[in-house]
Amino acid sequence: MRTGVWLVGARGSVATTSIVGARALRSNLTAPTGCVTELPQLRGPALPAFTELVFGGHDPVHTPLAKRAEALAAAGVVPGRLVAALADDLAEVEEEIRPAPTGGTQAERVATVVADLDAFRRRHHLDRIVMVNVSATEPQITPHPGHVDPARLAEALHGDDEVLPPSSLYAYAAFTAGCPYVDFTPSTGARLPALAALAVERGLPYAGHDGKTGETLVKSVLAPMFAMRNLQVRSWSGINLLGGGDGANLAEPAANAAKVESKQRVLAETLGYQPQGDTRIDYVEELGDFKTAWDLVTFAGFLGAGMRLEFTWHGCDSALAAPLVLDLARITAAAHAAGHVGPLADLAFFFKDPVGVSTHSLAEQWVRLREFVTGLHATTGGADAQAR
Ligand SMILES: NC(=O)c1ccc[n+]([C@@H]2O[C@H](COP(=O)([O-])OP(=O)(O)OC[C@H]3O[C@@H](n4cnc5c(N)ncnc54)[C@H](O)[C@@H]3O)[C@@H](O)[C@H]2O)c1
Q1: pLDDT band at 379 (very low <50, low <70, confident <90, very high)
Q2: What is the pTM of this model?
Q3: How far is CA 225 from CA 121, 258, 301, 358, in A?
Q4: 3 state DSSP class of 307
Q5: Could you count the other beta carbons within 10 Å of the beta carbon of residue 162?
Q6: Whose CA is nearest to atom 9 of ligand 1?
Q7: Which atom of ligand 1 is nearest to the CA of 318?
Q8: Phi, psi (rounded to 5 degrees) for 232
Q9: DSSP summary character for residue 335
Q10: Residues 321-336: pLDDT tens digits?
Q11: Ligand 1 mean position, distance from CA 249 (Å)
Q12: Which of 70, 206, 247, 261 would disulfide-bridge 243, Cβ 3.0–4.6 Å?
């Protein structure tokens, strides 16, 4: 199944690491560490192979992909030997990155993105394209009457208003071009009634939101433990220090608020109450793409005995995110091929703020994911057997 992976934010750290990683896997230059679709429980015939993934995308900046990859190598995020070995691959992908459309009405910008997707599909004889949003986190939006249904939205996009934030405009373009959409960021993306209806109208699946790669991943393992042991979490405070483009963007108060809200969901929804404490995200340029999270949890046990847990997480953000981007593209492509439509709640395992489901326990999410992917393989196995 030849599958296009269209990255919104194609020159960013996560996108560049995903492209370098996928091309290295295709050439057997590295192991699939961190790719859950390569675990024996998930591997199988429904998923497109790494050799079948073709990359393209949009980005407003023009820094060549090879330069971005070299910068990531210098920062210790990807091995320099891989970047050197993959020079031709990166040049090939470079040809498929288009400038993010600007100016004109939003309807005109959608038309440009749709034309870029259609041309990409034709050039590479793709069976399908999955659009994955890995661009900068946006502030939360203000409601607009056009958000309610597809017809009003289509009309509003022809006017002068900025009706949709970029993440949602890309989702609209993806659905218009017949492509599934995955949001790896906390931005609005497909989370508007008009876009949800459009996806259903076009028979397309979508997934999101906000990749679960660090502090929240650990929380989604620890919070269910406190709940299952009937221990009372009294406070949970976390501080995240990070640099890189994501860190710089999250220094903006509005983007920071969107990210913090996405990170906070797991506690209240897992414990059934909100303990005291906040999550903070601070920008420290020196840390680059490496993030440190410190969490302090205070909790009470039998007869009110007070206890505490502390953890420190030092993560390389893009190295944690990139294999999940590849997993999501592969599973979403297979889900589309199998006829799934609407929010892919079974992919909650990957997200801080999953669409279509309120369970945040990693263990429960893992069971759902395994059943879902096993079902995709069974469908493909059946189709293959019929074709034979
Ligand atoms: N790394 C992780 O572990 C992780 C986890 C969860 C979510 N995320 C999210 O993934 C996103 C990407 O992170 P990153 O570290 O690669 O950030 P980055 O700043 O390195 O890359 C973002 C890219 O998006 C581009 N961009 C900005 N506006 C755009 C637009 N309108 N259209 C197309 N491209 C646009 C930027 O030019 C940049 O190249 C962020 O939103 C981040 O919050 C990352």
Answers
A1: confident
A2: 0.95
A3: 46, 27, 13, 17
A4: strand
A5: 13
A6: 185
A7: 1
A8: -95, 110
A9: H
A10: 999 999 999 999 999 9
A11: 9
A12: 247
